[in-house]
Amino acid sequence: MTAELCCLTVRVDTTRWSETVLEEVDLVVPAGQITAVLGGPGAGKSMAASALAGRLPATAQSRGQVLIDGEVADDQRWPALRDRVVGYVPQEGVTAFDTQKTVGAHLRALECSHRAWSVERACAAAHYPVEAADLLPDQHSGGQIQRAALAAALLPAPRVLIADGPTNSLDMGTAYGVWRSLRDYADSGAAVLVVSNEVRMLTHGGVADRMVILHAGRVLAAGTTAELGKSTDPFVRTLLRSAF
Which domains are assigned to the chain? Predict the structure, then answer.
């Protein structure tokens, strides 16, 4: 299954301020691959991820299309796709949970609802410490709740997985384990998109098959590590300098 953004423009209007966050963005996430989205602050990375997951904020207006396996994911189709076909790890993992329930209760409810992966399997893949499952979401550290959100996204065994900052606040060893799990998940046939600026791990760590670099809401460059390494664009060269 492939996920795509086709000529997508997103404008956010809060009545207090308005801004075009994405402008005519084309982005393809093929099955069996990890596509990494990189860019500086305000580049539109998280908005692209949320658009692909069908979770644009209420203040956003969009023009263009989101395609899941070649079909337009419109307002009628999204309810059936969310949480079943498309798994999503938000930038702030705590927002994936009901703050009044323990993380364990949330995960067990998902397990019963989808009957795909077990809680134990999802937690192991996400490197989430099961001893923390009896805590409320806001009792977790930033790294713990991000891994819990990844476990929740994996439970339905979605064919498209979108992870925004899946290794935020993690030490190097734990982050490496999470990246390997994401690599394994893509190798199983899923289309995986990650938002991250951990350039060295994405490239030399063998994680990403392809990278898309956003700048000021537009796609500045896209390609494999080798292809981007040959870029003469100064922003691209600066962003990737740590990896080459």
Answer: 3-85+160-243 (3.40.50.300), 94-157 (no CATH)
